[in-house]
Write a structure and sequence with these properties.
The protein is of the alpha/beta class and about 625 residues long. It is built from 27 helices and 13 strands.
């Protein structure tokens, strides 16, 4: 019996050992490989692996060849981002693996947020589908295309919960709900990374921004976050943790302050919570230049900030070069330890090992894939299918939609014919010339069944510099504010129905709202009921019939009706004088161009106390009913 038990125990031990070897063999092999490699590295070479500069390509249009190439030859970088094109990336990778002592391959990143060349709806719109499989398909296609063009690391998904509509980056996230955000976080990770990143079309995902980036005060980007730990765990942490549980390979820290400490240097956040509590073992990278930007928060200059970031658990320094240029001296001064540097370097090398770059440094440099797998008809068909699931119709008054293909349809807005902005926010890798405009799409859809009218209507902002900052690398052609508005009003006057595009927070909408307030007319009456004639008639009715006599002489210039005098505006209780002046002068310009009869008709009706048919329909209900 004892012998039988002994034999049985030995067999069980062998089986257990074999299972352990098969389950953990890859980890053991990776650990052995990385340990052996690090034994050959100098401190400077280890710090080089922690350095992640930008190539500049997606911003300037050209790679900073001399500077980036020189750093690669000196083994002063572990990877780079913002370089697009398989040939450029191949050439830089070749330098690393063929012209350096250690021949360590580079990791190549990019912001692949809602598509690479094939563009999908923005993440906030994708979340409106409530379809995790659709989002996983989007991420899968994004990974296929990015990897075919040399990219092996995407800085996505952004899973920051946001409940302040003033925060513009909410467009890159999944909204306000932690449960939905958690489900979608997992879908993104599985779509990008596939089966443990073994395939050539599977890439490293990076969940961001850890943590609380969407809770910045007043909705201001990079601002302070002041929040209890109870609320963090209950309402904001869930999507990050879900991504970790899904096996995300990397995490990006956030710019904001948490508990009075920048997240990039917050040990409680990056080590105690992320690594110790949640068990994350992957690569932790900073956001763009965030170590250097700690000085803006009044925390520390670059050298001290780099020490704090490393001690907190940061592995890779994006752009600031603080780790590369200061940590060697800090090591000599005893402010950091070699073990801390080794831990960060190991995690960078492990990420490359998991991607298969040591086995095949050119895994993501297959030029044949680049020719066949970008912007394919199949990918575009999926994008169209997914987009159809994301549309949200809040109201369809009088069954206006779908639009009837007849009559005259006016398309008005600064984004309606802006080809270089059709890719959406945060889509720097797309080729704008491949994408049609909304105007082209509507004209193609209706053919000769309806006449499509178009007017830009306004600039995105009155201030040219503010607009320049908003549109970034894809500027819009600007026009004269008054002329654009006059054109829009003339176009609207001819139309049976008006489609407005790109007016969210727009100056033109504010102008129309100002006019509506001034004239006691509802916004929808002015904008959607084609009542320009009533608009001009109301001007006359409200005591501005002798417009020429009310003009401010200082504003006239060479153009008649250039402005309304301040006393007249004040008499009408205006809180938006500039908006009213702009709209009034545009309306009068329209009225002078052949609409005298219609205006006279409205004036006559108003003088007799009668209403037009449209006014009767829109009039408030009587007998105490609400408006």
């Amino acid at each position: 019996m004892k012998i039988r038990n002994l034999v049985f125990g030995a067999i069980c031990g062998i089986i257990f050992f074999s299972c352990s070897e098969s389950g953990g063999g890859k980890e053991v092999e990776m650990d052995r490989f990385v340990t052996d490699l690090m034994g050959k590295m100098t401190i400077r070479e280890k710090l080089g692996q922690l350095n992640l500069p930008s190539g500049g390509d997606l911003v300037t249009g050209s790679v900073m060849n001399s500077e980036l190439s020189d750093m690669i030859r000196k083994e002063e970088i572990g990877g780079f981002f913002n370089v697009k094109g398989i040939k450029k990336i191949y050439d830089l990778q070749r330098l690393a693996v063929e012209e350096t002592r250690l021949k360590i391959p580079l990791i190549v990143g990019a912001d692949v947020i809602h598509g690479y060349e094939t563009i999908f709806p923005i993440p906030l719109a994708l979340s409106c589908s409530w379809d995790t499989l659709a989002i996983q398909r989007m991420a899968r296609i994004s990974a296929i295309e990015a990897s075919a063009d040399g990219i092996c690391w995407t800085f996505s998904p952004m899973v920051d919960i946001c409940r302040d509509a003033r925060w513009g980056r909410i467009a890159e996230g999944s909204g306000e709900d932690p449960y939905l955000g958690s489900l979608l976080a997992k879908a993104y990770v599985h779509g990008y990374q596939g089966d443990s990143m073994q395939g050539k079309d599977e890439i490293l995902s990076c969940v961001k921004h850890f943590a609380l980036y969407g809770a910045s005060e007043a909705g201001k980007d990079y601002n302070t976050v002041d929040m209890s730990h109870l609320r963090m765990y209950n309402e904001y942490f869930a999507p990050y943790r879900a991504a970790v549980e899904a096996g995300v390979g990397s995490v990006m820290s956030s710019f904001n302050i948490v508990d009075g400490i920048p997240a990039t240097a917050n040990k409680w956040l990056l080590t105690d919570v992320l690594r110790d509590e949640w068990g994350f073992q992957g690569l932790l990278v900073t956001d763009y230049n965030s170590i250097a930007e700690m000085s803006i928060h009044g925390v520390a200059p670059l050298k001290e900030a780099s020490v704090r970031a490393l001690q907190a658990g940061t592995d890779m320094d994006m752009v600031s070069c603080g780790f590369l240029n200061t940590l060697e001296e800090s090591l000599k001064e005893g402010k950091v330890t070699e073990a801390q540097i080794d831990a960060a370097c190991r995690r960078v090398l492990e990420a490359k090992y998991k991607l298969g770059l040591f086995a095949d440094p050119y895994k993501y440099c297959d030029t044949l894939r680049a020719e066949k797998e970008l912007y394919t008809p199949e990918h575009r068909a999926v994008a169209r299918e997914v987009a159809a699931e994301t549309f949200v119709l809040l109201k369809n008054e009088n069954h206006l939609l779908p639009l009837e293909e007849k009559g005259k349809i006016a398309l008005i807005g600064p984004m309606a014919d802006a080809r270089n902005n059709m890719c959406g926010m945060w889509s720097m890798t797309c080729t704008p010339s491949r994408h049609g405009t909304l105007l082209e799409g509507i004209r193609s859809a209706v053919g000769d069944k309806a006449e499509i009218l178009y007017a830009k209507g306004s600039n995105v902002y009155y201030d040219a510099e503010m607009e320049k900052g908003a549109v970034g690398i894809r500027p819009l052609e600007r026009g004269n504010d008054q002329q654009l508005l006059a054109e829009a009003l003339r176009t609207a006057a001819r139309a049976d129905v008006i489609v407005a595009d790109g007016f969210s927070g727009n100056v033109m909408l504010k102008t129309i709202e100002g006019v509506g307030s001034f004239l006691k007319v509802k916004l929808k009456d002015i904008f959607f009921k084609n009542t320009l004639t009533k608009f001009a008639a109301l001007l006359v009715k409200d005591g501005v019939n002798d417009i020429k006599n009310t003009l401010d002489p200082n504003e006239r210039g060479a153009t008649p009706f250039l402005g309304i005098s301040k006393p007249v505006l004040k008499a009408h209780g205006s809180s938006n004088a500039r908006a009213i002046r702009n709209a009034v002068r545009a309306a009068i310009a329209c009225a002078e161009s052949g609409m005298e009869q219609e205006i006279a008709e409205h004036i006559s009706l108003m003088q007799t106390g009668e209403r037009t048919a449209g006014e009767k329909e829109a009039a408030p209900k009587e007998n105490g009913q609400s408006m």
